[in-house]
Amino acid sequence: MTYQVLWSETAARELAKLDRSVARRILDRIDALREAPKRGLRRLVGVPYYRLRVGDYRVIVDLVEDKLLILVLKVGHRKSIY
């Protein structure tokens, strides 16, 4: 079972603003989630979303398991993402 990854416009803009090396690491980690999405994700308290840690950066995702879909909602530095 391979999940499909969809990026929100906001997340795509935020990713484009980041340094290329950081953006590449984030893309690699998101790609690795396609095979085993629960691995590396942590559920956020009070909202139905998950977070992925990539160094000092966080990626907020929504996991739609019945449609095998990973929606990337936000990307940013850990001090400003929440």
Describe the structure.
- The protein is α+β, with helices and mostly antiparallel strands and 82 residues long.
- Strands 1-5-4-3-2 form a 5-stranded mixed beta sheet.
- It has a single domain (4-77), classed as 2-Layer Sandwich (YaeB-like fold).
- The mean pLDDT is 95.
- The longest helix has 14 residues, at 20-33.
- It has 2 helices and 5 strands; from the N terminus they run βααββββ.
What labels describe this entry?
alpha+beta; YaeB-like fold; 82 residues; 28% helix; 5 strands; single chain; 5-stranded mixed β-sheet
Radius of gyration: 12 Å
Low-confidence segments, ≥5 residues, pLDDT <50?
none
What is the CATH domain class? Alpha Beta
Instruction: Give the number of domains.
Output: 1
How many helices? The count is 2
Brief rundown of the structure:
This protein is α+β, with helices and mostly antiparallel strands and 82 residues long. It has two helices and five strands; from the N terminus they run βααββββ. The longest helix is centred in the N-terminal third of the chain and has 14 residues.
Protein topology:
Layout: E1 4-7, H1 9-17, H2 20-33, E2 41-43, E3 50-54, E4 57-64, E5 69-77
Parallel strand pairs: 1-5
Antiparallel strand pairs: 2-3, 3-4, 4-5
